[in-house]
């Protein structure tokens, strides 16, 4: 028998709903931790005085009672667990685990027994059902009956509203009315909020963000009373789950957050968090409405009768002493601007996200608290509205997703390091490379995730293009740049603008000339499009040595079969994606091994390529390419000459019009011609570098006449 026993998927009934968690029996104590709320039940082994094994709806359950009167019930055990739990209890707790049967007769008459915090309804010494008196919200009496109303739980699909007990008339053992005696027993243990007596202390006009407004907070021994102008809320301390004290990003205010389970309600609205906002500069002097002896006995030095200090310190100190829970503050995290929070948006409302030591809390609308234990994974995504921000997504084990958007890009490094240090599962670790890379990669990419494999393939393709023969790349650049076309366009624009310099034609002629100019210009653009040569496809030299593979491709070829065997039925695309992820996770030493192999293959390729060129390899393909190029130029020359003849036939009248313009504006034309010759000269000087290899197209007949007039 080991020192501990642990059980997963053990359920605890809370106001009609089942919450799962983990239960551990050790020599010192019994610990149960709820998976939903994170709340921990810690039962010292010395306080256990009763243990029962019962048949329940979820298999079998255990009922534990302590000497202080508390009762705990856990369900979800199997038949086979009884023996080992019974032996463990006998050996370590000196308590016998007794089997207790439940009455299933369905009778509605029996005996009501009050045992600690439970009301049990027994039939022939067997319990039919039990009512936790802490779930009772109201107890009303009638002539011969008692009505119990219950606190409602929003998580329960079906809720029990009330139960009525008929109490026969007669005298009770103490000589009082049995109905009143029954009601007194219920009220002594019920969680009925009644503001009897004076408050311990009162805080006036506190600013509350949730629920919104200003409230007077009256502190009573067992509950908290929020008194506002419109609404009142009474919050039992038993429903307080956690307390948070969080500094505002402006360093001048403080948030005090009270987590509630179950929440307070206003109509259909549920408030799971009570958020108070304080100014650091606001001070208060507080006197408790208790004697010094009572304060010392009740709070054991945590509070004193007279206290003074900041308002937020006083409220948090009093709440901590009454609720008996620790106050959670931010840990070591510091954002880009030095504050302990991150400005972001959640559900279209701006707020603050606080990374804590054991979770995240978002303040304030709506508040969200996520513990690390319930987080399945986190994800960094590119912002949808601007490239200067990113989104932080959190997915829980229950399948819920929370997206905190519009986080400044400068916060990425700090948040990533924090999440990584907490060992949370990060969905896309490759996103960090994209965030710390070039700005263009971040802003221009439309993908949600950084694809390292795709980036590597692009880089290798670029290296292959740069490694092509120099004569092929030069021929490509010369083909795409045709200086003759630009000169042609300049000449046509000069001729069409000649009419604008002729002031003697009048307004009517100038309008006609502008129309003709537009038609002429459209015709020139159309002809230029028709004459534009198509880019020639590169001709690869198939006789040369084969280009070497990169380190990644060498590793991929050796690992492809292994990836297939480990992932049966995987497609080619998925193999590539999987390989990219594996290559990114490979250690530095293994990568250096493959890079050494790739470097050796590159040296052998350079040597073989040099020998191939020295032996005359590759010259035949270049000769064929040059001949083909000359043939293309001849065809283009024929096409241009044919186009010039057609232009002459069509535009006889236009030529005569140009001759008349030339005679009348000889001086203007000559000056414009000088400007044009200077422009052509500067164009020629800028293209001297490409003049040796470029093959210019011969001018058409119309261009010849234009050049003749200029000279």
Give a brief description:
The chain has 711 residues and is an alpha+beta fold. The chain has 18 helices and 31 strands.
Can you describe this structure?
It is a single chain. By secondary structure, the chain is α+β, with helices and mostly antiparallel strands. 37% of the residues lie in helices and 30% in strands. Helix 12 crosses helix 14. The chain is elongated. Residues 432-451, 469-508, 647-671 and 676-711 have low confidence and may be disordered.
Features:
elongated; disordered C terminus; 37% helix; eight-stranded mixed β-sheet; 711 residues; four-stranded antiparallel β-sheet; alpha+beta; single chain
Class per helix and strand makeup: alpha+beta
Q: Tell me which oligomeric state these chains represent.
A: single chain
By DSSP (H or I, 4+ residues per run), the number of helices equals 18
Largest sheet: 8 strands, mixed
Which regions contain 5 or more consecutive residues with pLDDT less than 50?
A: 432-451, 469-508, 647-671, 676-711
Helix content: 25-40%
Q: What is the CA-based Rg, rounded? A: 44 Å
Mean pLDDT: 75
